[in-house]
Amino acid sequence: MDQLAAMRAFVRVVESGSFTRAADILALPKATLSKQIQQLETHLSTRLLHRTTRQVTVTPDGAAYYERALAILTDVDELDGSLSTNLTCPRGRLRIDISPSLATGILMPALPDFFSRYPEIHIDIGCTDRPVDLVGENVDCVIRVGEIRNSSLIARRIGELNFAAAAAPSYIARHGEIQHPKDFEKDHVMVRYFSATTAHYYAFDFIRDAEEVEVLGRYSVALNDGNAYVSAGLAGLGVILCPIFMMQEHLDAGTLVRVLPEWHTQPMPIHVVYPPSRHISNRLRVFVDWVAELFARSTRARAAT
């Protein structure tokens, strides 16, 4: 038995959920792939997969074996890449995690450019804001907004989010213009945002020259998703304080209008974070460099508008 080939077959079956799809991915006859899995189970003296006529599911032993096998195969691919022509044409799979709003607004529109440069790299993208165990979950890197408190990780600052306050014209028509941030405490309503992981409510912080104002204010609705947050602003539910890139098209179209334009807020840093390692794969290195260039360019351009 070729154990590495059998491990690759098993990993592809788990990831695709199908012997047929895994065989297609590996360009193998289905019978050959099935035989590899059977030989692997015999070698390990345990069942790795439950097979029925409708689906394939992984057993508890199979789930544990999958994580270790995936790590081993990743190391093998990186070793091959470091000693071959893949130095100039990196290949293989990356697993990343990024907040949904950054994925939708910045990363996804630019990915065709990345794949035109590196067609042999494949990316699995998780869209979450949750804390990720990079080593335990076998994730290559995460892209996060805010300060990074885990000093055991490498955090490269790649840009910053600039915020602005805005409201729908229908809201302004009902409530009038906002003259000062303290107006939120009596005459105006904000849309609040809270963390999906900590449930912490964020205040509105405004700065003008030497004056700084933190506003909690009144609100009718609070949300923990960026896209829903912008939708609440569009619906006229209150004033939103939002990253400019998320609402730029609405500002351009006039469906949202800036309020308190002479006030600004502290920008929030964006980092790409990955585990420390003596050997960083070529595919991770080129992705980090590319995404740093992308976010620096994108957030700088939007900050200027």
UniProtKB/TrEMBL annotation:
Database matches in Gene3D superfamilies: Periplasmic binding protein-like II, Winged helix-like DNA-binding domain superfamily/Winged helix DNA-binding domain
- Which terms in the Gene Ontology molecular function aspect does this entry carry? DNA-binding transcription factor activity; sequence-specific DNA binding
What are the BP-aspect GO terms?
Answer: DNA-templated transcription
Q: Which InterPro entries match?
A: LysR-type_TF_proteobact-type, LysR_HTH_N, LysR_subst-bd, WH-like_DNA-bd_sf, WH_DNA-bd_sf
Domain HTH lysR-type residue range list: 1-59
Q: Which domain of life is it from?
A: Bacteria
Q: Which CDD domains match?
A: PBP2_CrgA_like_3
Print the keywords alphabetically: DNA-binding, Transcription, Transcription regulation
The similarity comment for this entry is: Belongs to the LysR transcriptional regulatory family.
| PANTHER family the record matches | HTH-TYPE TRANSCRIPTIONAL REGULATOR, LYSR-FAMILY REGULATORY PROTEIN
Q: What is this protein called?
A: Transcriptional regulator
Q: What is the lineage of its organism?
A: Bacteria, Pseudomonadati, Pseudomonadota, Alphaproteobacteria, Hyphomicrobiales
